[in-house]
Amino acid sequence: MRIGMNTKFGSFLADLERLSSEITKNQLKISSGKNFLKPSDDPPSAVITLNYKQGITKIERYTKALDEGYAFLKAQESVLAQVEDLIARAKILAQQGANATNDLSARKAIANEIDGLVQNLLSLANSQLGEKYLFGGQKTTGYAKGEAPFKIVRETLPTGQVIERVIYQGSTEDFQIGYDKDMKLTVGENGQKIFMDSSLFETLLSLKRTLLADNQIDYQKEAYNIQEAIGNLDRIFNYIAEKRGEVGSRMMHFETKKQLYEDFKGTLESNLGNIESADLAKLASRLQSLSIAYEAALKAVALFSDLSLAKYI
After folding, report:
1. What's the pTM?
2. Could you list the residue range(s) of the whole structural domain that residue 118 is in?
């Protein structure tokens, strides 16, 4: 008889422990607002939840890359707009230089202003956003002290003539931003494509040399060289304008993609909320039922505890 009573008493205690655990679990769900507290509570939902969270994290990394890329492109677009203005000014100066009434002093003044434009364009080509060079391609940083993607070098010929040229030290790979494993977002074109392939610096430095030479012996050749430079500047202006347009189009593309991914993220977050969020009304009803059952179990244990052999004699 004692073994039977011990077994029965153990069963009562086990029920109390189970009910107590269930009550605590429901209280925690209500306080947290979550449908399950750990994966083992609902393995299928936990797997789906994990997939949603991973998807949201990837989207957040991608949209962050889009934001960074957009800022980079916006800075490029601003610089290229200034480049266009300087090219337009260079064309006006070239047209002035083609005027046969200009003497050597006037041509030197025009050449000096052309030189100033070259320096300004060089500075624009070496523009930075934070610590990153805008037109260094994939090599946005990592230059030696005093170095940059573009620099002007001077070479003295045996005749004593000094030849200037601009060289590009950046990467010929377009700038990319990594946002996930083996995933990259291409942002802006490298400086070789934008500045060097356009022959911008080459044209201006050649024009400067022509104006300083003041070729009185063969004026027709000089005039031809200046007109050629004017034609090249027209072509270069259109080339830079096209590149600027491509940058603007890419900015719009980035904006559209970001909006699409933000909408997708919202859908995932909504679905995640539906899975994770607890039904508070259902949990409250469940908690009430468990509390009633727990009180009943306590009373049963109390009654059972009062039993003794004496009551059966």
Report:
1. 0.76
2. 51-270
Give, in degrees to the nearest 5, the angle at Cα 243 between 225 and 114: 35
C-alpha–C-alpha distance, residues 239 and 195, integer Å: 10
As beta bridge partners, residue 183 has 180
pLDDT for res 270? 85
Q: Map residue 310 onto helix, strand or coil.
A: helix
Which has the closest alpha carbon to 204: 122, 81, 149, 135?
122
Question: Is pLDDT of 92 > 80?
Answer: yes
**C-alpha to C-alpha distance for 292 and 312, rounded to whole angstroms:** 31
**CA dihedral angle for residue 284, residue 287, residue 289, residue 292, rounded to 10 degrees:** -130
Looking up residue 168, the CATH number of its domain turns out to be 1.20.1330.10
Domains identified in the chain, total number? 2
Cα–Cα nearest to 202, from 148, 96, 122, 123? 122
Closest of 71, 83, 160, 157 to residue 118, by C-alpha? 83
99 and 158 housed in the same domain = yes
Q: What is the CA radius of gyration of the chain?
A: 39
| Single-letter residue type at 257 | K
Rounded Cα distance between 174 and 186, Å, is 7
Structure tokens at 122: 């060089």
Is 45 a member of any domain?
A: no
Give the other-Cβ count within 10 Å of 303's Cβ: 10
Is residue 66 within 8 A of residue 258, CB to CB? The reply is yes
Asked if residue 188 is part of any domain, the answer here is yes
Residue 124 · residue 79 · CB < 8 Å: yes
Query: Shortest CA distance to 66 belongs to which of 236, 266, 257?
Result: 257
Residue 201 lies in a domain: yes
- Across 38-42, 88-92, 97-101, 205-209, least confident range: 38-42
**pLDDT tens sequence across 19-44:** 666 676 666 666 666 766 666 666 77
Asked if 173 and 239 sit in the same domain, the reply is: yes
Residues 223 and 286 in one domain: no
